Amino acid sequence: MLVLTRKSNERVMIGDDVVITILEVRGDSSVRIGIEAPRDRRIQREEIVVDVAIANRHAASASPTAERELTRLLGGA
Description:
The chain is an alpha+beta fold. The protein has two helices and three strands. It has helices at about 45-60, 65-75, and strands spanning about 10-15, 20-25, 30-35. It is elongated and about 65 Å long.
């Protein structure tokens, strides 16, 4: 991991096509950043990606009684 210290309006370049600009620093706990990147680059907040992955795993897993209940609903034995 690269750790940098930046001030407001300073930038960091990632490769040739991604630029991160420090927009505002609020005290010790909050930093606003701007990201310029090609449209085909996905930029997502990590906590959202993690939450969606957890929700997808939960939605894809069946309860222990799901097969029995599905069989009953479909008119099986």
